[in-house]
Design brief:
By secondary structure, the protein is α+β, with helices and mostly antiparallel strands. The chain has nine helices and nine strands. Helix content is 54%, strand content 15%. It has a four-stranded antiparallel beta sheet with strand order 2-3-7-6, with helices on one face. The longest helix is centred in the middle third of the chain and has 37 residues.
Length: 385
């Protein structure tokens, strides 16, 4: 792949992704998902295609794609197997944090290795007693000469087992007030004191590894502090989470569309009372709502991606897209199961996977309850009385 910008180039990359998904993912996704097996061969192909560097600037070896193109890739992936979209999402949030906020030395050392997937991982934020309220984290990094010594535990970390490098959020000043002024973000490669304690079993979202990470006197060099200054970690990661929420919205679009596609197909094959169920008004009402939800989700997600590409603050737009698209994925997955009837409850059909995968989206990258609050606060801030 090459650096791609205009519409014809976007079409080329999307065609390439479609072929990859059809030929190399779709035939094996069902088995890998049900066995909860990490898709090592698929990941190697994603590396070869440059997908781990798709948002990294060409100056540092990436493809330099727009976020608008990226969300179309994620939608396509999620229609076929949502788990593989998560393998690059967390990784790219880490990369974007370094690209936006890192020192020039950090960019030159890490971004080319992120782009190839040589260094691959994600973001280590959430803790056993801390999810939405990131300021409540308890993992601490204490300065010790040219290093920081880290102690604490992180939970639900995507790519935690198979990845080897993470953007690690810590408290460098636990007594700081307000709390965010004591938070910092490090580039943390696996090494002594950085342990994967266990793989976490999940309802859905199989194949991708989610893990608990434990840090016991883990030493990280001071020059791995992103941006070179303490106290800016929360602002950095919140910028990355805007991208993460746009990614999760795109996953919602993919799942909502996949549920619709499977339902449209099945409704024309399955017959009751002498005619295809697609001719029954009750089914048509469901299909009409499902199609509208999928398309509205797509447009909201594209709008958020365009705002991100312009460099604008877009927590409201990302929140709207994430909220609506993920709720649409849940609703469409349930309706798809109802349209399929008893077969929808069977592991032989894809819709049971959609039903298990969709709930994660309303929780991950900030719960939908939080998104509603963010949207409301931004509405007030942008429209003072």
């Amino acid at each position: 792949m090459q650096n791609l910008h205009d519409d014809s180039d976007e079409r080329l990359i999307l065609d390439s992704v479609d072929r990859f998904l059809a030929q190399e993912v779709a035939p094996v996704a069902w088995q890998l998902e049900h066995d909860d097996v990490y898709p090592a061969d698929i990941v190697e192909r994603m590396k070869e295609m440059g997908l781990f560097g798709c948002l990294i600037d060409p100056e540092y070896g990436g493809l330099g794609l727009s976020t608008s193109t990226y969300v179309k890739i994620i939608e396509r992936m999620s229609k076929v197997w949502m788990s593989i979209s998560g393998i690059i999402n967390s990784h790219l949030i880490m990369a974007v944090c370094v690209q936006r906020f890192g020192t020039e030395e950090q960019k030159r050392e890490f971004l080319p290795r992120f782009a190839t997937g040589e260094l691959r991982g994600g973001i280590a934020l959430t803790e056993p007693d801390c999810g939405t309220d990131l300021q409540a984290i308890r993992t601490v990094a204490k300065k010790d000469g040219d290093n920081y010594v880290v102690n604490g535990t992180k939970m639900w970390i995507s790519n935690g087992i198979e990845g080897n490098c993470f953007a690690l959020l810590v408290k460098t000043d636990p007594q700081a007030s307000p709390r965010h002024k004591g938070m910092s973000l490090f580039i943390a490669e696996k090494g002594p004191g950085f342990e994967v304690s266990r793989k976490l079993e999940k309802l859905g979202y199989k194949g991708i590894d989610s893990a608990e990470l434990v840090f016991q006197d883990y030493r990280v060099a001071a020059d791995r502090l992103i941006g070179g200054a303490e106290g800016r970690g929360l602002q950095m990661i919140l910028g990355g989470l805007e991208l993460g929420r746009i990614n999760v919205a795109a996953r919602g679009v993919g799942l909502a569309q996949a549920a619709l596609d499977e339902s449209v197909k099945y409704a024309q094959i399955r017959k009751t009372f002498g005619k295809p169920i697609a001719e029954h008004q009750a089914i048509q009402l469901k299909l009409g709502d499902m199609a509208t939800r999928a398309e509205a989700s797509r447009l909201l997600t594209q709008r958020a991606a365009e705002a991100f590409d312009r460099g604008e603050r877009c927590d409201m737009e990302a929140g709207m897209a994430k909220l609506f698209a993920t709720e649409s994925a849940v609703e469409n997955s349930i309706e798809a199961m109802r349209i399929h009837g008893g077969y929808g409850y069977s592991k032989e059909y894809l819709v049971e996977r959609f039903y298990r995968d969709a709930p994660l989206l309303v929780i991950g990258e900030g719960t939908n309850e939080l998104q509603r609050i963010i949207i409301a606060k931004q509405l007030i801030e942008r429209n003072p009385a």
